Amino acid sequence: MKTVKKILxxxxxxxxxLSAWYLSKVRTYTFLDITVKIHPGVFHPGLFFSTxxxxxxxxxxxxxxxxxLELGAGTGLISIYCFKxxxxxxxxxxxxxxxxxxxxxxxxxxxxxxxxxxxxxxxxIQPDDFDIIxxxxxxxxxxxxxxxxxxxxxxxxFEFFKKLFYQVQQKRNSQNRILxxxxxxxxxxxxxxxxxxxxxxxELASKDHVLGEQxxxxxxxxx
Length: 223
Hints:
single chain; Rossmann fold; two-stranded antiparallel ribbon
C-alpha cells in the first residue's frame, strides 16, 4: 500500500491541475442509489475516501427515528442517506452559501426532507437538538482565502478545531454522539491535544486503510 501512495504522490503535478479543471464545472455523482450534483467549490464526495468511510460506519448504526446533523455538509450526500434510512429529522449545515444552495438542490433532486442552516460550526445550532452529529472536517493547517477553501483548511493554528471544541464544550449538555472522520494525513497529535484542552477526548470508533492511507472515525466524548 505504501507503493500505491508513492505512485500517487509522483502523479500529483498532473493530478492537481486535472482535478482543478474537473471541479470547475457542475458534476454528477451517484453512490448507494443517491445521485447528487456537485457545484464548483463544493467538496466532491466521490473523489475522496472520507464520505464513503463515514457512510460505511453509519450503515452499522440504528438510524431510524434519530435526529441527525451533518455539520459542514457540502453536497448533503450523507444527510440524504440518513433521510432515506428513516432518520426522524435531518439537518445539514455549512459555512459556505454555495454549499447550502447545493444541498437544497440535491435534497429536492432526491425528494429528501432536509433542513439547511447557514452556520459557522455551532454558531446558530444547538448540539443538544440532535442524537447524532456527523463531521467531515477540514484539517490542513492553512488559512482559508476563499469560501471554497473552508472545505480543506482549518487555519494555520488549527482555529477550526479550537472553535469546534470550544462550542461543543459550551453548548453540549446531553450525551449525543459526535462522529468525526480524520486521516493520517492530518496532525492527529495536535488535534488530540486540542480536544484534551477542552476536557474531551477522541475515542476510536473504526478505522479503514484505503490505498495506503489510514482513516479513522472518532467519537468526540467527554472525559
